[in-house]
Amino acid sequence: xxxxxxxxxxxxxxxxxxxxxxxxxxxxxxxxxxxxxxxxxxxxxxxxxxxxxxxxxxxxxxxxxxxxxxxxxxxxxxxxxxxxxxxxxxxxxxxxxxxxxxxxxxxxxxxxxxxxxxxxxxxxxxxxxxxxxxxxxxxxxxxxxxxxxxxxxxxxxxxxxxxxxxxxxxxxxxxxxxxxxxxxxxxxxxxxxxxxxxxxxxxxxxxxxxxxxxxxxxxxxxxxxxxxxxxxxxxxxxxxxxxxxxxxxxxxxxxxxxxxxxxxxxxxxxxxxxxxxxxxxxxxxxxxxxxxxxxxxxxxxxxxxxxxxxxxxxxxxxxxxxxxxxxxxxxxxxxxxxxxxxxxxxxxxxxxxxxxxxxxxxxxxxxxxxxxxxxxxxxxxxxxxxxxxxxxxxxx
Amino acid sequence: xxxxxxxxxxxxxxxxxxxxxxxxxxxxxxxxxxxxxxxxxxxxxxxxxxxxxxxxxxxxxxxxxxxxxxxxxxxxxxxxxxxxxxxxxxxxxxxxxxxxxxxxxxxxxxxxxxxxxxxxxxxxxxxxxxxxxxxxxxxxxxxxxxxxxxxxxxxxxxxxxxxxxxxxxxxxxxxxxxxxxxxxxxxxxxxxxxxxxxxxxxxxxxxxxxxxxxxxxxxxxxxxxxxxxxxxxxxxxxxxxxxxxxxxxxxxxxxxxxxxxxxxxxxxxxxxxxxxxxxxxxxxxxxxxxxxxxxxxxxxxxxxxxxxxxxxxxxxxxxxxxxxxxxxxxxxxxxxxxxxxxxxxxxxxxxxxxxxxxxxxxxxxxxxxxxxxxxxxxxxxxxxxxxxxxxxxxxxxxxxxxxxxxxxxxxxxxxxxxxxxxxxxxxxxxxxxxxxxxxxxxxxxxxxxxxxxxxxxxxxxxxxxxxxxxxxxxxxxxxxxxxxxxxxxxxxxxxxxxxxxxxxxxxxxx
Lengths: 396, 510
What we know:
The complex is a heterodimer of chains A (396) and B (510). With 396 residues, chain A is α+β, with helices and mostly antiparallel strands. Chain A is 29% helix and 38% strand.
């Protein structure tokens, strides 16, 4: 058996979910060869019937542990696809992995994180643990407590990385896959271990354009006041009344995506992105991730060129930690895909491939948020943001 | 504000110095120095702080100005983003329309055309729900494409469209209908939106000139995104494409059906012709066999008639009177004519049935012409007809000597027959490109245009005063044609009334 980590990818664009799952899994198995897979990752668009999709996949992979979720589009080696599914198989004789799930993330985030981590830890066959790959319901408000719960089980500085499931910008219902179950309002994760190398690259390509505003009142992802004034008023002051009215009609629009908010916990913390997805009562703003009181928010600017450069930067960053690259997983924010448009989104993937090499397996999906590790002065923290691209390089 | 600091400092220094001198002594001076130093330091710090605050204020003002400028930039850029988003959406719609048009172009059945709506197409148009179906003559509709909506709900939508009269309204409308939650006033339209779980929908009819009509509904739950007019225009283009595709499929089907019918008819006619041809061939064979059989049967009694006539003329059965000899001579002559006629019939029958094979020999032209001349000279000289022969560089003929002699004897005999005394007959040979061409021209009475096409038919004789005087069976030229064709040659005639005729034949030389 091979000790090198092998990653194979299969996909399908069929409208029939059962056949799509079978086709994607079969082509991934074919590319894998004789080595049995240790872990299967699956991502699909929301249009496919999820249970039938999983049935199709499991009819090929058998009892191989499966992890994944619905998305806002899948990323294939050939480029992004809005309606399709992708199956990624990882194989290595020395790879240890197990999966776990926690349900009810919207109401009990910490417990959910603990449950998912504990479930994976209980079934973990090896001794050496490397990383926790998590996927969660992208419509849940904030993930700080989820990650806190995971770290309480696995370790404070344990590497937790992953993406938030999406539903093609409908913001209605997302799905998470764990083994043979299709879950909703859940956190699922895979605990990976063994002599594997994991490289992380994360960048967003946005830069601050406005002055920072102090968050004087906030709760979770809801920002009530900035500098003592209603948050929506401050926001409207920058974007103009017409744009706000348009955003209120259209939901998460291109305008909002092009100008996300940069959140900084304190002066030493990096700027993490937040998108405004709605307007609440009393002039409040609803963001895509938590915003704490006392932190600062400022408007960020990005354009297609900066966003594309960020993708290349993230790819280079991810490759630095890996000697022999087996494959990469790409979790790209759905809002970036919308900002770039179909052609530029394809160009983004092509740019990543030009950095990692055309022959390296590449796959992933468009997410509603990214869970990334951040190096700070006090140590190693995890942070949740949206609007960035997360690249996970796997190798030995 | 800072001048008072200097004033106070000056007063402080002077005051301290005065007190120190008045107090006298070193300690007092030392204390005074410390106090003065502290005051000076304090003043300096205050001044620096003041200046820093000033700078900070300036920076703050500049920052605020930059922030204001950033707002202007953002608002301008947002407008561009909005336009870009609209353009991207339109572009995606147009590309989907193009792709759909390409697929429709190769669809040949209406059912196939109406099934072409799929998830990516509906999504690229900016909608979530799509229904496309064919209308029936009964007034109902059946959905061929359902996107984002289940079958049972689709049936409920169908029933509502039919029962509420909305379907009729759609089919009679000349442009797409827009339905919006809270804006559309008709209860039936509101109900349709409820069934679709949509807040915005566009409905349109597909009415081709030929083929089944249809209905298209696109809906979404997010309200009209961007340009409402653009959605209606898009639907208009889409329904036109579908209608054109249905018309083309109907035309194709019509053309295909016509082609099938035509092929069937052609097959029927071909079969009939084949049967008729077979019958004709059998008849022809039967005719040839009949002629051959009859001719054989006739020859035997003819031989007997000729034989007994010859015996009578020899006087073996007693001397004959002159009138008796004359009549027996006529019996012989007519028997000879009949024998020649029967021989020609037999030859024609044999050639047609393939029982005669033509020899392929090299015939020296001089010998050939000599043998012909021997036969026709008496006739020629009796009418004092001038006879010219031109054979140029032709040295040989290729063919069956006996049958070719019959051909040229027949042609020349006819020429003599139909040329008045003192006329002219010209025989000419040419050779080129593997073909020998011979022509027999005369200055005779000529042949009328209506007789020319039938000249080589069996038993045909031109309706001519000369023919009425000159006896013939009408088989000579038919036999000539058969012999030439058996040699893989051709024969043609050109003639003008009262100006003469030219018979031209070709023979392969190799």
